[in-house]
Amino acid sequence: MVQFTLYVERDTIIHRLDPRAKLVWLGCFFVWSVTFNHPLWCLVVFSIAFTVAITSRTISQYKFALPGMISLFIMCCIMWPFFRSGYTPLRYIGPLLLFYESVLYGLGSAIRIVAMILAGLVFFATTRVEDLFVALLKLKRSPLFYGMVFGVSIIFRFIPTFFAEANLIMSAQEARGVDILHVNLIEKIKNSIPMMSPLFVTTLRRAGELGLAVDSRAFRAKVERTFLYTVKMTAKDYAIAILSLAVTALFLYLRIRGYGTVLPVV
């Protein structure tokens, strides 16, 4: 059976963390990723995300993203050296001169981009949308903020539905003899056109039904609302948040001191 949701039910320390603590960690991790540009230091940051993924026992769920991550890694390693200068000439490739520092910078950029993607996957694989929704609402109680958070949660809620609809339409087209997977790129684009119309119509229909559903339930009629799911920050959650902020301060200090850099500009 094809799975269209990233969240995986596990009983791990990562899953039991409050979504706000994981949001702090994720934000800090993005800062860690852009702090250094030396590949060895970027590899240290990547190892943190990989360790968290192993601890959460959800790494097997990221197989769908592996081809894209590998392609992005290779593209960064190839393209970045041609857009950055350095100090130590390495060799000419046609009219372009490659520098040793620019090659290292490209490798470091590839590692940190993949690390950020992996951290995002870990966050959504260990956090339910319902818990994230309630946790965000606890940050600020106002009708406007509630509408914004509700809109974001609806996006994540309906992404699996859209994938399921697209898969169903693709199966229906294949049953009618339309080959989408085993053709060249031009034919694949042409054969994908019959999928767009039913998917677009289905999306509009669901959006209209959603609007009627929330209006019938008095959406945003009251500021104070009750929730089926509840979340609460514990000492462990505060410790993770404080540790993440402390590591962020340490990494920024090291960067200011000149550590972890190949080129002076991030």
Keywords summarizing the entry:
two-stranded antiparallel sheet, 9 helices, 3% strand, single chain, 266 residues
Radius of gyration from the CA trace? 23 Å
Strand content: under 5%
The counted number of beta strands is 2
* Strands side by side in the biggest sheet: 1-2
Sketch the major β-sheet.
2 strands, antiparallel
Label the structural class.
mainly alpha
Helix segment tally? 9
Low-pLDDT regions: none
Oligomer classification: single chain
The SSE order reads HHHHEEHHHHH
Number of domains: 2
State the helicity in percent bands.
55-70%
- Report the principal-axis shape: flat
* Amino- and carboxy-terminal Cα gap: 43 Å
pLDDT averaged over residues: 82
Q: How does this structure look, described?
A:
- This protein folds into 2 domains: 13-128 and 235-256, no CATH class; 142-216, no CATH class.
- It is 66% helix and 3% strand.
- It has helices at 13-16, 19-35, 39-56, 66-79, 100-126, 129-137, 143-175, 185-216, 235-256; strands spanning 89-93, 96-99.
- Strands 1-2 form a two-stranded antiparallel ribbon.
- β1 (89-93) and β2 form a beta hairpin.
- α7 (143-175) packs across α8 (185-216).
- It is flat and about 65 Å long.
